[in-house]
Amino acid sequence: MTLPWAPGRIVRETTRLRLREFTEQDAAFILELVNEPAWLRFIGDRNVHSLADAQGYIARGPVASYAKHGFGLWAVDLRASGESLGMCGLIRRESLPHADLGFAFLARHRGHGYAREAAAAAVALAREAFHLPRLLAITDPDNTASRGARARGLRLRARVHVVRDRQAAGALHDGPRVRPAAGPGVMALVAATRPRWHWDIA
Fold first, then answer.
1. If the chain, 202 residues long, is cut into consecutive pieces of 10 residues, what is the mean pLDDT of each piece?
2. Are the CB atoms for 4 and 67 separated by under 8 Å?
């Protein structure tokens, strides 16, 4: 897939932030972000170790998702300066029954409320622009910052056990493998690892 060189299309602006589509020009930023300790701990190694790898990540992940679903992970920039802070958006995974809210920010930009602000914008887009009937968000209980940012616009539905597909380890969008249980809004096990929080759109 050919990546656009022009600045990415702006999808939402907030008081401080701009959410826009990723382009090839974001490769250096992606290379840094996906190799930060918090990303590797809570999200996993995506085997992105060069600018070429980062370009492939963008092409096969966010850009492919824009084309297929109309949404995906978006770059989050500071409106005042244009500096890239992180990513936030909506991910449609084969392993989940509904779209999933995801985000990650560089360590030096945490603690300023950017993740909460961006997540609220993504939830609003899920409702207003994409008319999604349900939005999921799954986070590790140890990732307290992520839990706090996801809470706005979402309600806690359940604690679930998830496992990553070993065959997809290191793949671009391997995610929690869960399946609906008999009861509405309840998630059940495919295979058990540690419990994680499952949030649902309010």
1. 64 97 96 95 91 96 94 97 96 86 93 92 91 81 52 51 41 40 32 37 44
2. no
